[in-house]
Amino acid sequence: MYTGLPMYLSKSAFFTQRVLLRSLLLLLFSLLMGGCGGGGSKSNSLIDASTSSHVASATTSITGIASSSASSASLTSNSSVVPITLSGLVTYDFVPHTAAGLDYAKAESRPGRGLFIELLDENNVVLATTSTNGNGEYSVNAPSNKRVKIRVKAQLLKTESPSWNFKVTDNTSNNGLYSMVGSLVVADESTVIRNLHAPSGWTGTGYTETRVAAPFAILDTIYTGIERLISTGDTSNFPPLELRWSIKNKPAGDNLENGEIGTSFFNGDAIYILGDANNDTDEYDQHVILHEWGHYIESSFSRSDNIGGDHGFEDRLDIRVAMSEGFANAFSAMMLEDSVYRDSSGDQQRDNYTNDVSRKNHQYRGWYSEASVQSVIYNFYASDSNKTARNFTDIFQVITSDNYVNSDALISIYVFSEQLRNLLPAHASLFNNLLLEQNIEITNQFGAGESNSGGDVRSLPVYKSIESSLVTACSTNTIGAYNKLMNSQFILIDVKTPGIYQFQVNESGSDSGNSDPDLYLYRNGTLIDSAEGASIDQESLSESLLMGTYVLEVVDARIRDIEETNEITACFNVQMQ
Questions:
Q1: Cα–Cα dist 306/372, whole Å
Q2: Which of 547, 542, 530, 573 lies closest to 2 in space, CA to CA?
Q3: pLDDT of residue 44
Q4: Is the CB of residue 481 less than 8 Å from the CB of residue 311?
């Protein structure tokens, strides 16, 4: 029995594993802990700088912008006082990628879109709220001649449908919400323009000032994704999500509160993002952020059966992992309209790993390859052959369809392919050709008749049938541990008569040492029962089953252990009674 299963859905380990730990730059960021209510609430922001002091995360200007076109928010207190409209532009430093990593010399000021704005008085009481528009502009009514200031939260908040609430928080400081705050001014005709800018903190050779821009850069990448999904016509509300970033977040260890997050990843509840300068930072790595947000989209609107763990573009993977990671890579490329996946790291963020997700030629091509999955999906998206090029609507329609979400099979490229052909028959020929280019058979959701074994003939058929009284399933780590091809094998169970069924597994053939078979029983991708006993060479599971299709996963627990260095292969006889 193995219980320490890593369930993180992370950026490519092919990249993260090559990163060496370097010196750590610790510059504590401005942190806001809650507080968006009215009378009496106190701000816990660590910064509130004036224009003249130049010591803050926020700089406030009273020149350089025309009147804002953002809608004005209502005054929430002192309604008897004649209001005056304050408006302005919120911007942040964005640092682009080049062949030599992040290029700070080419940093540009970008609008902070959709950001939540609060008008505060001198006691940090919230007087009014609004949000910036798509140009980073805002306007808000303030009581005239009252001392006020503008606070910009690292939050995208929209309450009407489709609604969303995305926040960037600091996992190393009790998940506090980041913000930047402008200086106090008397609200009158001379102070009606209040611009705020979030600087990167880079001063030529390093981050020697507070990295204010990072949370806003992360959110603006998410805003791009929101826009693309809304363009599909979907009006579903987005479940709330925190994106947890810190300058302490580094690719090491296993302590989230201390910043030892290992890699940027989505764990089903939040997205954790690397920020360790001169080691690995991801706040400007838009593909990385949208890759993880793609996992969130799968979880929120579609379905993923991904078991997580390390993965790389040239790995031969568990069918579930290949699909989810390949989709997430293609998703980030589609959202950004940029097929080249980019991830910076290293001293001064000068290392730049790239991979073109549209590339068709890979070392391993097949249903077990995230590189193949991303190539098929992205190239379908980009093609103008008998379809509208770069239209994400079709793909979103497939992954949100009832038959996809409720598929009897585990989610894979086969499920995606079958549903695309059913929903978009006019595009079937185009898609089938892309599959064949990646050595993937044109077949049903279970991959019936697949001939590409990935180098191990025991991997076929993709789903073994237990219609006979006995079937053999093998589990091996010869390709890699935990989530690689042939770690697990899947058995298709078609229950025609409801009742209690017994599954018995015993090791067969040559002795592989003390094997420890584990069983996992799924219905529509949901785990309904498991057997993880410690008995040597055998396992059993008994379950009352309704009529329908089930999938039984068989795996040797030793294979799931990523610390296991010995090559292990164990084959089992599986019986159903």
A1: 16
A2: 530
A3: 28
A4: no
Specify which residues 422 forms β-bridges with. none
Q: CA torsion sign, 405 to 411 to 416 to 417?
A: negative
- Contact indicator for 286, 217 with CB cutoff of 8 Å: no
Per-residue model confidence (pLDDT) at position 1: 55
What are 208-233's pLDDT values in tens digits?
999 999 999 999 999 999 999 999 99
Contact 441, 414 (CB under 8 A): no
The residue assigned the tokens 């008085």 is: 121
Beta bridge partners of 52: none
CA-angle at 333, arms to 331 and 339, nearest 5°: 145
β-pairing, 83-94 vs 195-198, is parallel
In sequence order, which residues have a C-beta less than 8 Å from that of residue 257 and are 6 or more positions away? 171, 172
Beta-strand pair 115-121/126-131: antiparallel
Strand segments, DSSP code E, in 134-257 are: 137-143, 147-158, 164-170, 176-177, 179-181, 185-186, 195-198, 241-245
Q: What is the pLDDT of residue 8?
A: 57
Tell me the CA distances in angstroms from 327 to 41, 117, 363, 413, one per residue in order: 44, 34, 19, 9
Q: What's residue 125's pLDDT?
A: 98
Q: What pLDDT does 81 receive?
A: 63
What is the Cα–Cα distance from 166 to 239, expressed in whole angstroms? 9
Question: Read out DSSP for 535-553?
Answer: -TTEEEEEEEE-SEEEEEE
What local confidence, expressed as pLDDT, does residue 82 receive? 81
List of the chain residues with pLDDT < 70: 1-9, 11-81, 468
Question: Exposed e or buried b for every residue in 389-414, given b needs 16+ CB within 10 A?
Answer: eeeeebbbbbbbbeebbebbbbbbbb
Scan for tokens 């040797």, then name that residue: 556
* pLDDT score recorded for residue 509: 81
pTM of the model: 0.89
Q: Where are the beta strands (DSSP E) in 37-146?
A: 59-61, 72-73, 83-94, 97-98, 101-102, 108-111, 115-121, 126-131, 137-143
| Burial zone of 254 (CB within 10 Å; 0-12 exposed, 13-18 middle, 19+ buried) | exposed
Angle, vertex CA 234, rays to CA 233 and CA 236, nearest 5? 155
Provide the 8-state DSSP code for 205: S
Contact between 120 and 97 (Cβ < 8 Å): no
CA angle 131, 135, 139 (to 5 degrees): 40
**Residue-level pLDDT at 80:** 55
Q: What is the CA radius of gyration of the chain?
A: 26
Per-residue model confidence (pLDDT) at position 143: 96
3-state secondary structure of 310: coil
Q: How far apart are CA 409 and CA 322, in angstroms?
A: 15
Please report the pLDDT score of residue 253 as a whole number.
Answer: 87
Name the amino acid, one letter, at 260. Answer: E
pLDDT recorded at residue 510: 77
- Give which of 555, 529, 525, 553 is closest to 542, Cα–Cα: 529
Residue 5 Cα to chain centre, angstroms: 19
Residue ranges of E strands in 171-276: 176-177, 179-181, 185-186, 195-198, 241-245, 265-266, 270-273, 275-276
